[in-house]
Amino acid sequence: MEKSIKTWLAEHEEEFVKDLGRLIAIDSVQGETKPGAPFGEGPKKALEEAMSLCEGYGFSVNNMENYVGTADMDAKLPRSLDILAHLDVVPAGEGWEITEPFKMLEKDGIVYGRGVSDDKGPMLAGLYAMRAVKELGYPLKKGVRMIMGTNEETGSKDLEYYYAREKAGEMSFTPDAEFPIINVEKGQFRGTIFKKREKEESSLLSLKAGIAVNAVPQKAVLVFSALGEDEFQSAKQAVEEQCQVKISKNGNEVTVIGTSAHAATPYLGKNAGLAAVLFASKLPSIGTQLKQDLEKLIELFPYGKTDGSGLGIKMEDKESKDLTCTLDIYAIDGEELRFTYDSRVPICATEENCVNTARANVEAKGFQFETKGMIPPHYVPSDSPFVQNLLSVYEKVTGLKGECLAIGGGTYVHDVENGVAFGAVLPDVDTRMHGADEWIKVKDLLLAAEIYGEAILALCQ
Q: Running DSSP on this structure, what letter comes out for residue 226?
């Protein structure tokens, strides 16, 4: 070929930015379900706009009831490679300073707006890769399909709908994460620990912390019938020193402030809920039985240890690394103690060594235990030809070292056989995804498009 994919993309940069602006201008946050709009008007409009672009690029398109849209490079070829991206976005939120969330701004080679990096920009990079290969006339033996979803941020019901009607390609990747490649997504194991509160004289009326089971709580509040200053100061000093949190008192209400973190990386946080339990356990006035129960809870979840060792489920393997575990929801009132944890488990986790072991250790401490079981890990072998081809392309185009990554979170391909996450954000780049003034460099999106174009050639020629 006389012209390279890289050259073609450089010639179409202005058009790329214009097309991205059309997508960003649509507020595609999930809305009210209506006939013909399963996730609201915004996601529907974004899908219709994307389908219009795909038709203009010469692709064969199919809108599947506004759940999912597909674009095939050549519908006559046997389907092989699927690229999964999504058009829905998280709410705009507050704090935008550089531009309005749905008014894309290009400034100094950077585009700003909700969705430029998650996931409208990367989706468009995949489409332009397909377009470059098509318009440059590269012959392919295998088909390539872009799958454009509309519900990734709030449940991925779009993919449930799609895969109930269509088979997955023999290879799939999503440009909805980071480079180089995420080939391992840990499983998830959540459990609730609870027991009735014993009747006894106690100063503690309630303890509450946590707003989501997948986030280390940043704040905890304890309410007392009475709390002496000496008792408060003694416990405050000990817990602040041990846990690196801030504890304050207003009348008979005590507030603990820590640092939030995602449950996939709980070691980055300071667990305010667990610090609050520690604080309460040091107060003689809470009563003997409650004190014993809180001390047993701390044995199950030692402060600062996020490896599941207290539950007896500490484990790791070479591909997916170590298990993580964090207690994130706390509720103590006059009737009950109830706590919920989130654990991200490696490939080696099983019902026996994980679920059954945790249950036995929780019940041995005198608590009851509930769980919905374990969501299995997702794994594509790092030595598979598919993964090795992607790594080779990534290294060739970027000059950077390609390696496989394991994460505790889930991506768009968690339930897709032979699916990996492949870009589009470069390593160690924070694009403020989900935050105010979300951004990404145009050259990085075009680089991702070049990688995807070369990957199409490597996998489908």
A: -
Q: Evaluate if pTM is beyond 0.85.
A: no
Q: What's the pLDDT tens digit per position in 6-32? A: 999 999 999 999 999 999 999 999 999
- Kindly report the number of other CB atoms within 10 A of residue 15's CB atom: 11
The sign of the torsion formed by the CA atoms of 97, 103, 105, 110 equals positive
Structural Rg of the chain based on CA atoms: 25
Distance, CA of 168 to CA of 302 (rounded, Å): 43
The two beta strands, 68-72 and 60-64, are antiparallel
Other CB atoms within 10 Å distance of the CB of residue 351: 11
Burial of 78 (0-12, 13-18, 19+ CB in 10 A): exposed
> Do 131 and 69 form a contact (C-beta atoms < 8 A)?
no
Tens-place pLDDT, residues 110-164: 999 999 999 999 999 999 999 999 999 999 999 999 999 999 999 899 999 999 9
Residue 165's contacts (CB-CB under 8 Å, 6 or more residues apart) are 64
DSSP 286: G
**Interstrand relation of 424-425 and 177-178 (parallel, antiparallel or unpaired):** parallel
Can you say whether the dihedral through the CA atoms of 118, 119, 121, 126 is positive or negative? positive
pLDDT at 434: 87
